[in-house]
Amino acid sequence: DAKTTQPTSMDCAEGRAANLPCNHSTISGNEYVYWYRQIHSQGPQYIIHGLKNNETNEMASLIITEDRKSSTLILPHATLRDTAVYYCIVRPLIKAAGNKLTFGGGTRVLVKP
Amino acid sequence: GAVVSQHPSWVICKSGTSVKIECRSLDFQATTMFWYRQFPKQSLMLMATSNEGSKATYEQGVEKDKFLINHASLTLSTLTVTSAHPEDSSFYICSATGHANTEAFFGQGTRLTVV
């Protein structure tokens, strides 16, 4: 079972920042927060992951609360190509064989012109 | 990021026939590969996990004799849907991870339609 809760859908305006929340109140100490997105009819794409510190890469920023019970993915300047389903997943760091990603419902993000 | 390639991207087959889907890691050695299935407007559901050189581990409710998984090399895993039926029509997606990877990389998916 997925251990995260995300809003079902959200709209955002092109060029504006998109803030995607995720609740993971039962996260364990050794579990990371991973974000993936899936554009229609494609395989999921890795975005970012973090443990407790905020992280930033060329795609997005990840803000994790101090108690680690929730996080927010930030797309700084949303474009129409960012329209996708965004999945927040918690799991141990993928290095051990057998560690799998369990997908919940995700948030369907629609970027509007 | 690393590249995972699936083939074919889409396939249409007749009911009762078998279909093989290939998943290749192009620029890294995939010690573990995962196979998912996704029905329209639903999330990805893990079917099985395969480690190179060993038998796949299937999730509860997934028939191992119907969905044959082979992971004979560090760059290739195959999923064969045997005796396919219309209810097997779905989007099948593989992902792969290696010793040096902290994240899993996904193929582009294969849309199977059984008629």
Shape of chain B: globular
Proportion of residues in extended strands of chain A:
over 45%
Helix count of chain B, per DSSP?
A: 0
What's the count of strands of chain B?
A: 11
Oligomer: heterodimer
Radius of gyration of chain B: 13 Å
Count of alpha/pi helices of chain A: 0
Q: Distance N terminus to C terminus of chain A?
A: 36 Å
Largest interface chains and counts: A-B, 24 and 30 residues
Structural class of chain B: mainly beta
Strand order of the largest sheet of chain A: 1-9-8-3-4
Helix fraction of chain A, binned, reads: under 10%
Low-confidence stretches of chain B: none
Largest sheet of chain B: 7 strands, mixed
> How do the SSEs of chain B run, as a string of H and E?
EEEEEEEEEEE
What do these coordinates show?
The complex is a heterodimer of chains A (113) and B (115). With 113 residues, chain A is mainly beta. Chain A is 0% helix and 46% strand. Chain A has strands spanning 9-13, 18-23, 31-38, 45-50, 55-56, 61-64, 70-75, 84-92, 107-112. In chain A, the strands form two sheets. In chain A, strands 1-9-8-3-4 form a five-stranded mixed beta sheet, with no helix packed on it. Chain A has a four-stranded antiparallel beta sheet with strand order 2-7-6-5, with no helix packed on it. Chain B starts with a strand and ends with a strand. In chain B, 0% of the residues lie in helices and 51% in strands. Chain B has no helices and eleven strands. Chain B has 115 residues and is mostly beta strands. Chain A binds chain B through residues 34, 36, 38, 41-46, 49, 87, 93-95, 97-106, and chain B through 1, 4, 6, 31-32, 34, 36, 43-46, 49, 51, 57, 91, 93-95, 97, 99, 101-109, 111.
